[in-house]
Amino acid sequence: MTPPPGPRGLGLLSTARFFAQPVKGMEAARRRYGPVFMIKFPGFPAEVFLTTADLAERAYATDAEGGRAGEIRRQFLEQLVGRHSLLTLDHEPWWRHRRLISPPLHGRAIARWKAEIGQIAADEIAGWPLNRPFPLRDRMQRITLEVIVRLVFGMRESPRGARLRAAIPELIEIAGRPTLLFMPPRALEWMLTARAPRGVPFLPTTRFAEVRAEVDDILFAEIAARRMAPDPDATDVLSMLLAARDENGNGLTDQELRDELITLLEAGHETTATALAWTFERLLRNRPVLDRLRAEVAEGEEETYLEAVVKESLRSRPVVYDVPRLLDKPLELNGHRAEAGWMVSPLIMLIHRDPEAFPDPDAFRPERFLGPDAARANKAWMPFGGGRRYCVGAQLALMEMRVITREVLRAVDLRAVDPAPERPKVRHVTLVPAKRARVVARQVTNAQEPPQVQERPQGRKRPAERAKAV
Ligand code: HEM
């Protein structure tokens, strides 16, 4: 059996070109080499990309024999999420954490959060500027951050909560800078701990270490306070994790809890905000879909079309573009052999563009998830990955997307600043709209009139006004 075909060693220049147009670059590789191809990016092990749902299932199946998705993520993420994280653990320790963390994020558990998510969104939307352009993704991030802080961490109005809200955006921003992300793990560890580099205040590593220490401080204090005074009726993830026990009767330690809270923040906040930004980027350029969705939302609580819109958004613009696995032993793929130690990556961005599963893949057509073709579409739809490492927050993400989309449609009339589609741009392991989904918002009541001077929508108060009124 031969190794998969592909360009093998790419130089730095061709890698940069490749990442400037990731979808086009990968499509060109699929056209040239077929559904399984291999690329060696500088500084990384050989990576075998899989571009159909059937091939992806073969990679996901390796999870059952152990699977080493964590090892791949460790070099980029360990300094932020730590060693006791669902993202970076493998084998039995990962499985233990997964069994403890899944129940609080299960569909039934999170259904109780629906009204509060709607309220968070409504409060935030009430503060959006009117009649002038702004990047929607940034605003969506504020909503999804608040969801994590209140419903995952269980922190509402408190001085600790305020400190945390101030520190988190900077922590996530610095952690995502390429200088930190791609620094060799040992060098990064040294920069973060040794006295000499820590003494240089303008280094991003110095600032990262400071903000991380501040966030850790807050989280450890919160964990200690909650251990002292547990609330048996609380529905937030931290409260439920504090009470959770494994089959030996052991709970998670403070360090494990800290690492998992940061994990849920890191994995769940920007991803969901980006998915919402894409949903509107697509809706605003597909008027008939937007009109049909508006009609459904105006009619009441029915969510069939809304659900299909959310799915089609994640299909046509998947946020996470691939989900690599590190092989423990060789794997046969369409007559080719991938060796132990290689990475195999279901390439979601191309699997979702496979015309066999999604005819006319460029079209934004939620109906593909409703009609007789729905089963075929669902089988190849994998924005949350697959196998045992399937996204643990998928139910929450989907609910947030439905609730927040509905709130936006009710509150404001959005227009795209530029009618041309925004191109997908690589940001860490995600694809984001290149202009962060630039929109203009108008009051929904006078949507047909030309833009007026800025005014707040009737009946909705800014959060600060709301707080004063209480
Ligand atoms: C639209 C939003 C989201 C997208 C597109 C997304 C996508 C993904 C993907 C593709 C993976 C990798 C799965 C694999 O390797 O097969 C993943 C893993 C993960 N996601 Fe999400 N995710 C989203 C939201 C969330 C949320 C809201 C949370 C939690 C609050 C979350 C927590 C996680 C965690 C902890 C993992 C690691 C799971 C493990 O390795 O066991 N995600 N996500």
TrEMBL record:
The answer to whether the entry has keyword Protein biosynthesis is no
The record's SUPFAM superfamilies line, in alphabetical order, gives:
Cytochrome P450
Instruction: Mention one GO molecular function.
Output: heme binding
Name the segments for region: Disordered.
443-470
- Which PROSITE patterns would you find in this protein's record? CYTOCHROME_P450
Entry keyword annotation includes Oxidoreductase: yes
Which cofactors go with this protein? heme
Q: Which UniProt keywords apply?
A: Heme, Iron, Metal-binding, Monooxygenase, Oxidoreductase
| Residue positions binding heme | C391
Describe the family membership recorded for this protein in Swiss-Prot or TrEMBL. Belongs to the cytochrome P450 family.
Name used for this protein in its record: Cytochrome P450
- Tell me what organism the protein belongs to: Actinomadura barringtoniae
